Amino acid sequence: MSEKVDLLCAELSLLAVAEQYANLADEAAKKKRSFVEYLEQVLRAETQLRGERRRQTLTKLAGFPAVKTLEEFDFEAAPSAPKARIQELAGLAFVERCENVIFLGPSGTGKSHLATALGIRATEKGYKVRFLTAADLVLQLEKARREGRLDQYLKRGILGPSLLILDEIGYLPLKKDQADLFFQVIAKRYEQGSVILTSNLSFGEWEETFDGNTALTSAMLDRLLHHAHVIQIRGESYRLRQARQSGLIGGGNASN
User: Fold this and answer.
1) What is the pLDDT of residues 164-174, one digit of tens each?
2) How far is residue 119 from each of residues 61, 69, 108, 194, measured CA to CA in Å?
3) What are the helix (H) ranges across the chain?
4) For the chain, percent of residues with pLDDT exceeding 70
5) What are phi and psi of 115, to 5 degrees?
6) pTM
């Protein structure tokens, strides 16, 4: 009998049922559970396994450079990071409302960690997430345009995810065509899906990054900030502080 059940489970791809039905049956018999209760337990085991596999797949497909969680973030080392506000964002209501989150602050203060952590939390809740640095995004946009599939890339790669994370805005200045492509991303996502951005620049400095184009920068910020949570993180780079404490660098003030 068990061989037939195993074959049926394999045919239907019921991995958890195949693994657990016998043990659950013994437990149900000992505790005198009904057939319906036993069936519920078996189906719940399968649902839990499929949910976990989906979360793992979503995390892998998101393209995170590393797995960073909110539980790992050292709020004591970054006292300017508003813990209560970030924990509220971790509830992901902003994703449901298609709102944006923008982390501003010097390099090494935890912006990318927090952006990734919110993205990880979103995949755990079943949302499709995409993580890209600004530089990688522009490279992919340019490649898609050269190959004549820009519209397809914008539809699938940009509008597809529920949450798009763009890291390191402002680390590299963009040329005019690149700035235009980046603007298309923000325009496409406006009120259609959430964006998390990180930048080491204040908003007043963004114009320099986008080829000095005042009109484009203003139009982009207008869309980004219309429904946005802006998190300003101040302080010294965590990595530099660690290096100083370990004696790898001197005790002078670090520049960002």
Assistant:
1) 999 999 999 99
2) 12, 9, 19, 11
3) 2-12, 15-30, 35-62, 83-89, 93-96, 111-124, 134-146, 150-153, 176-189, 206-209, 214-226, 238-245
4) 91
5) -65, -45
6) 0.81
